[in-house]
Design brief:
The chain is an alpha+beta fold. It contains 16 helices and 16 strands. It binds adenosine monophosphate (AMP). Adenosine monophosphate binds next to strand 6, strand 10, strand 11 and helix 13.
């Protein structure tokens, strides 16, 4: 007979504080205590977008990989290094969206939104995913709000894309930011300039950082906005695109700066600003905050007049922006802006079993009237219920026991002033 081996595993069950699962690096829980600030930001975004007559669009968080590689550009950091791409069970290549423009344009084309109106103005709020090295202000799942205007070539729309985030920031009390703008040219003037730039960069090739050296042939414009001191020094005095724009791009850029001037919106023309996405034409801009450290970009955007066509739609002018919510929250925290959710309007403290049932029914009646009401679910003592009412910052407390139920009246205590007023239990009015 075979000897039966019983493997004895005598492991203690894990103590409750030894966690089995943790969130993935670069992702963050948004906890109830954080939610008031998030909701304030989201509310402000919705209000401002509404005021500018943008309508919300919600697209899936994952799409065909090719949508992003096509639009953002194969050689960009996002596509070459940062996308969450996987093969699903049907062997399709899927990517979690790293930004919102590509999906919005795909939805615009697929649903024929351009047919319904010559100008489509939409906004979105939602999570984006990039496998970046996590650090303060840089996450792998982060949130953006953004907008796209499709169908118009007026510089007024480019400026509107700057005004939208700036108005959102202003409404939230953030004033310290800088707005940098540039023109990255179009298919007429950029290719010519790119060749010139490549030739110029080859002359200083040996002095460039390895990262920039790798970009000279593939993405020479990015070399210009490298943050490396070495690259800055090597490219000092190099011809800039500003001086090689075609007439149309020049005129468009002037249109943008004139409007900014007439709005008295402070801005700086940064001829080296390129931004990390390939699809921009003409205007590119970035908003940074002086309250943030190295990851100081709050928002960025620009015009992308060729992108709809590139994705299979009819030729359509387009311009948009995207802004990071976590970065904005960091600024709000630095500025010590606090967002608190007020406590429930009413907390009913029950003295016994019967009152507890009454309180539960009454609470649902009050909630139907739109009065936020809390009761005790843990069968706590009166003292503990009062403590809880304080902890949740209830505005009014009603203590109910046998006596109150028999009389049909009770006392409503204003927790701030301590004042008490008599109330009819059948007709409780708050405030
Ligand atoms: P982009 O889509 O790269 O133009 O980024 C627009 C804005 O999104 C940036 O200015 C940041 O505020 C925010 N953002 C981009 N990447 C991240 C990230 N990895 N973590 C947090 N915020 C980000």
């Amino acid at each position: 007979m075979k000897k039966q081996h019983t493997l004895k595993v005598d492991l203690p069950s894990p103590p409750p504080f030894l966690m089995k699962f943790r969130s993935i690096k670069g992702t963050k829980d948004i906890l109830p205590a954080d939610v008031a600030a998030w909701q304030a930001v989201e509310r402000t975004v919705r209000r401002v977008m509404h005021d500018f007559h943008y309508r919300e669009i919600r697209t899936p968080v994952f799409e065909q990989t090719a949508l992003f590689s096509r639009s953002i550009g194969e050689l960009t950091d996002i596509v070459s290094k940062e996308m969450y791409t996987f093969t699903d069970r049907s062997s399709d290549s899927i990517t979690l969206r790293p930004e919102g423009t590509a999906s919005t344009l795909r939805a615009y084309i697929q649903n024929n939104l351009g047919e319904a109106s010559p100008l489509t103005k939409v906004y979105y709020i939602g999570p984006m995913f990039r496998q970046e090295r996590p650090q303060a202000g840089r996450l792998r799942q982060f949130h953006q709000f953004g907008a796209e205007a499709l169908g118009g070539q007026s510089p007024a729309l480019d400026v509107e894309m700057m005004l939208l985030p700036l108005e959102i920031y202003r409404s939230l009390g953030v004033e310290a930011f800088s707005l940098k703008i540039n023109s990255v040219g179009c298919e007429k003037c950029r290719p010519r300039y790119k060749e010139l730039l490549k030739a110029e960069l080859m002359k200083v090739y040996g002095r460039l950082s390895p990262e920039s050296q790798a970009r000279v042939q593939s993405n020479p414009l990015r070399v210009l906005d490298s943050k490396e001191e070495q690259d800055r020094a090597a490219t000092r005095g190099i011809p800039l695109l500003q001086d090689h724009l075609c007439e149309e791009c020049k005129k468009h850029f002037q249109g943008v700066t004139q409007l900014l001037d007439s709005l008295q919106l402070k801005h700086e023309v940064d001829p080296r600003l390129v931004r990390g996405l390939d699809y921009y034409t003409k205007t590119a801009f970035e908003i940074t905050s002086t309250a943030l450290g190295s990851q100081d970009a709050l928002a960025g955007g620009g015009r992308y007049d060729l992108l709809v066509e590139e994705l299979g739609g009819k030729p359509t002018f387009g311009v948009g922006f995207a802004a990071g919510i976590e970065r904005l929250l960091m600024v709000l925290e630095k500025l010590e802006k606090s967002f608190v959710e007020p406590g429930p309007a009413l907390y009913i403290v029950a003295l016994d079993e019967r009152s507890r049932k009454w309180a539960f029914t009454k609470a649902s009646e009050m909630r139907k009237k739109g009065i936020q009401t809390e009761v005790d679910y843990l069968e706590r003592s009166v003292k503990a219920q009062m403590r809880d009412a304080n902890r949740v910052s209830a505005q009014y407390v009603l203590v109910v026991g046998e006596q109150e139920l028999a009389a049909g009246t009770g006392k409503l205590k204003n927790m701030q002033s301590g004042a008490e007023v008599g109330v009819d239990l059948n007709d409780i009015r708050i405030g």
